[in-house]
């Protein structure tokens, strides 16, 4: 086996390997001899299966295993020549050439190693921003929302009609083309009118009804309705109102303050206002981080930190972005790219610049996370995936297994670390509150 390895830059090295065909044959023969001592084949005593039988029956598998063994040896020898440890590798070797000839296998691949980053001065790239403020209107609305969670429902007095904000108890049944459908019927259902829980027009159509009255609501399911067999269909809902309840929002008193602020020794209205103000500010800051600051910070990091990128990782990211974009190409473009290798390569390479930025940011985020001791443990990862599943009405265990099968768990973990890192920087770093932008 002939090996030539050389360092290309601080994180990439190339290896040129030539494996003589005789060496490959010898390895196949060695594997066949070992297998003959352990394999059980009908008609032969255990441990006495002729090598020729093994070679004939398992030729393809033995060939693949032999190649893998020789490649592994070649990789280890290349690392020795480069004076590198396998623990320093990132990603899989990126093969630029794998040419099988009669006399030899000619291989060229790139080995990539983790960049050594110095990020101690990262704080100077945190974008400046004005600390969010809470307006009186926002404070009033948030206080009302809070009191609403402690409100009680009381039946209305008199015979007034149903209005927005009321809670209605009613029966309903839906009909499409005169036939009822599964899931379209309920008795004594309680609904807040104006909550938009039902399809457009349903809650609005009930406004004005009085207790005991019935009404037919002629509506249509939205075209984007999740249940495809109902999407866009015209429907008639027959409703009968049984009861109307009003939400009675309580007055803020000492007893209620104790419920709202259970962990405070001396709960009072002033402290509640401080908590409400802090919550509003944090919500605004979170929105500002997600919509503006995170992107600005990421762009500044990418622009100001320059280092060699692992070529194998960049190529893998380029491939992934190209595959992701493929589904959005027109059928005409897909056909052209499938038939023209040059154009396909040109199109694929057009994603490389974005791939480089993505890989660069990933290493920076990984470095900053270690610097700030940010991590996501297995339990947090599982909880995040399960929460995503619950939110989308998917079986959480199956959702987790799908991520696992696709090898996507590391990417999910990195996304969670990124989110946790940026929140830590913007919410807890004193250096980022620098006044007006």
Automatic annotation (TrEMBL):
It catalyses: [protein]-peptidylproline (omega=180) = [protein]-peptidylproline (omega=0). GO terms for cellular component: cytoplasm. Residues 165-245 form the PPIase FKBP-type domain. It is found in: Cytoplasm. It comes from the Bacteria. SUPFAM superfamilies: FKBP-like (SSF54534), Triger factor/SurA peptide-binding domain-like (SSF109998), Trigger factor ribosome-binding domain (SSF102735). Its EC number is 5.2.1.8. One of its GO terms (biological process) is protein transport. Pfam families: FKBP_C, Trigger_C, Trigger_N. GO terms for molecular function: peptidyl-prolyl cis-trans isomerase activity. Consists of 3 domains; the N-terminus binds the ribosome, the middle domain has PPIase activity, while the C-terminus has intrinsic chaperone activity on its own. Involved in protein export. Acts as a chaperone by maintaining the newly synthesized protein in an open conformation. Functions as a peptidyl-prolyl cis-trans isomerase. Belongs to the FKBP-type PPIase family. Tig subfamily. This is Trigger factor. The gene is tig.
């Amino acid at each position: 086996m002939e090996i030539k390895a050389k360092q290309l830059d601080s994180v990439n090295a190339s290896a040129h390997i030539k494996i003589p065909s005789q060496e490959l044959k010898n390895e196949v023969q060695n594997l066949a001899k070992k297998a003959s001592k352990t394999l059980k084949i009908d008609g032969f005593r255990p441990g006495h299966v002729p090598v020729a039988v093994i070679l004939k029956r398992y030729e393809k598998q033995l060939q693949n295993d032999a190649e893998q063994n020789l490649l592994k040896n070649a990789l280890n020898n290349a690392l020795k020549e480069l004076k590198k440890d396998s623990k320093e590798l990132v990603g899989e070797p990126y093969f630029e050439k794998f040419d099988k000839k009669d006399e030899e296998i000619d291989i060229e691949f790139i080995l990539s190693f983790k960049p050594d980053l110095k990020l101690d001065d990262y704080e100077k790239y945190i974008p400046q921003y004005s600390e969010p403020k809470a307006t009186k209107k926002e404070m009033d609305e948030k206080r009302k929302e809070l009191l609403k969670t402690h409100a009680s429902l009381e039946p209305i007095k008199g015979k007034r009609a149903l209005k927005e904000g009321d809670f209605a108890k009613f029966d309903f049944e839906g009909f499409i083309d005169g036939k009822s459908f599964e899931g379209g019927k309920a008795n004594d259902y309680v609904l807040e009118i104006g909550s938009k829980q039902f399809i457009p027009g349903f809650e609005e159509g009930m406004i004005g009804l009085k207790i005991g009255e019935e009404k037919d609501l002629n509506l249509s399911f939205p075209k984007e309705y999740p249940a495809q067999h109902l999407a866009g269909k015209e429907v008639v809902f027959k409703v009968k109102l049984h009861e109307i309840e009003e939400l009675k929002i309580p007055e803020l008193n000492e007893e209620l303050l104790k419920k709202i602020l259970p962990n405070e020794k001396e709960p009072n209205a002033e402290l509640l206002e401080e908590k409400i103000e802090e919550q509003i500010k944090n919500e605004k800051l979170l929105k500002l981080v997600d919509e503006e600051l995170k992107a600005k910070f990421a762009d500044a990091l990418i622009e100001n930190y320059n280092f060699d990128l692992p070529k194998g990782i960049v190529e893998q990211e380029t491939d992934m972005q190209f595959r992701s974009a493929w589904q959005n190409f027109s059928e005409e473009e897909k056909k052209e790219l499938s038939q023209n290798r040059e154009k396909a390569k040109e199109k694929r390479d057009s994603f490389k610049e974005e791939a480089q930025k993505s890989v660069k940011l990933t290493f920076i985020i990984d470095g900053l996370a270690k610097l700030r001791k940010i991590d996501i443990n297995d339990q947090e990862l599982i909880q995040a995936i399960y929460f995503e599943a619950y939110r989308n009405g998917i079986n959480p265990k199956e959702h987790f297994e799908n991520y696992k099968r696709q090898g996507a768990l590391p990417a999910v973990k990195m996304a969670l670390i990124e989110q946790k890192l940026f929140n830590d920087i913007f919410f807890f770093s004193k250096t980022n509150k620098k006044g007006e932008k």
